[in-house]
Design a protein that fits this description.
The protein is an alpha/beta fold and 263 residues long. 23% of the residues lie in helices and 37% in strands. The chain folds into two domains: 67 residues, S-adenosyl-L-methionine-dependent methyltransferases, CATH 2.20.130; 179 residues, Rossmann fold (3-Layer(aba) Sandwich). The longest helix has 14 residues. The structure holds S-adenosylmethionine.
Amino acid sequence: MQFADLAIKNNKLFSVPEIYDLAFSYDIRAEISNFQGLFADCLSKHILLPACGTGRYALGLAEKEHKVKAFDIAPEMIRWAKSKRKHKNIDYFVADMTIPYNVQNDSFDAVFLLNNSFRYILNKEHVIQSLKISNKALKPHGFYFIEVGLNEKQNAVGSVTQWQINHGTKKAYIRWVLKNISENIATDLVKITIESTKHSVVFEEEQLQRIWGFDEICLIFEKTGFKIKSIFDKNFKQIAVDDFNKIYQQGKYFLIFIKKQKP
Ligand SMILES: C[S@@+](CC[C@H](N)C(=O)[O-])C[C@H]1O[C@@H](n2cnc3c(N)ncnc32)[C@H](O)[C@@H]1O
């Protein structure tokens, strides 16, 4: 086997969808059916999917008969999604979730912001702007479903998240190291190595993500017209909202906020 190392150092991960898509190509069928459980009362729902990346979740939801509007700030991601994850129930477009984009007010049953995409909005004012836009787009009682890592603290510096993907003749090794935290912003060192029979590709970059605690995230949602409804851990086990502060640890959670009614 011969490997020619190719370092794609100056590209951002989200502008190389072929690498992103392989690195995140784990099976999401169980997640999709858990999401479906949230809609037990009705089959067809209108879903807004900001930061949709390569369209993995958009397609999963569209195949369950949901109507999905999915967008991302990276045109490369949307090009990939349109060519590989096309579906009659999905409308893909390029947009920044922090700047008003073209969707109808009061028209979605749910917003899904998945896989820590929320944490890529670094500036608090931009977060508020993004949540207000989503709030307007939601129908009364619509919900905002967010998957987010909570409570990274200084003592988490050095922590490593890693996984491996086997995809036909390709293998991908992904390693995410929390390098540093400064003023609510974490710097992660991301390394993705893809090996195939012919060559290997190494992608490395530093990524910045905002750090959130549970109270802080609830406060910002409250301020933008939502209230917390339910919480699930990464295995989709429900946690009582009132118990959360007593038991929660650093890690990923699914939080559901509901659009508050105007008084
Ligand atoms: C970790 S990826 C998650 C992608 C997708 N949700 C998934 O689970 O596969 C984060 C995505 O957020 C997108 N993103 C970051 N900032 C954004 C913004 N302001 N507006 C829209 N998309 C954004 C990136 O381009 C990237 O595709």
